Amino acid sequence: MNRQAEKLCKLGATDKELAEFFDVAESTLHLWKLEHPKFSESIKKGKEIADAEVADKLYRRATGYSHPDVDIKMFEGEIVITKLTKHYPPDTAAAIFWLKNRRKDKWRDKIEHGLTDGNGNDVAPVTVFQIPDNGRRIETKAD
């Protein structure tokens, strides 16, 4: 069961999908993870391997990459196999996704601006609420 769970997680299975595969409720799967540490470790290991592979592929798409390949053609009745290297340029969308997730401080869409005092020290933001007078206005001498 541990090995099967790990294999399924390497293929991207979620806890919900694991529970469906083992024909149990998701809460039962969570209980199994608590009661059987090796089962839990198998799931973690499978998910870590899958996530690492996806991260590697995303990074390669973001930065561009090359790989060996072959071109197979028919020329004058003969099969001609030519070794070559395929090049893939960096993918802008993959690069943006990578940077927004890995360098949120510099690349996120929403930039938070902090408040500082005259000396450049951070100042905590203050929320001011205005309470309606509901007709209970207090008369002052200036009125």
Strand content: 15-25%
How far apart, in Å, are the first and last alpha carbons? 81 Å
Reading side by side through the largest sheet, how are the strands ordered? 1-2
- Shape verdict: flat
What's the β-strand tally? 4
Which blocks of ≥5 consecutive residues have pLDDT under 50? none
N-to-C SSE series?
HHHHEEHHEE
Would you tell me the overall average pLDDT?
Answer: 86
Main structural class: alpha+beta
- How many helices does DSSP assign? 6
Radius of gyration (CA) equals 30 Å
Which key phrases capture this entry?
two-stranded antiparallel sheet; 143 residues; two-stranded antiparallel ribbon; flat; single chain; alpha+beta
Can you offer a commentary on this structure?
- The chain is about 50% helix and about 20% strand.
- It is built from 6 helices and 4 strands.
- The protein has helices spanning about 1-10, 15-20, 25-35, 35-65, 90-100, 105, and strands at about 65-75, 80-90, 115, 120-125.
Compose a concise summary of this entry.
The protein has helices spanning 2-10, 15-21, 26-35, 37-63, 92-102, 104-107; strands spanning 65-75, 78-88, 115-116, 122-123. With 143 residues, it is an alpha+beta fold. The mean pLDDT is 86.
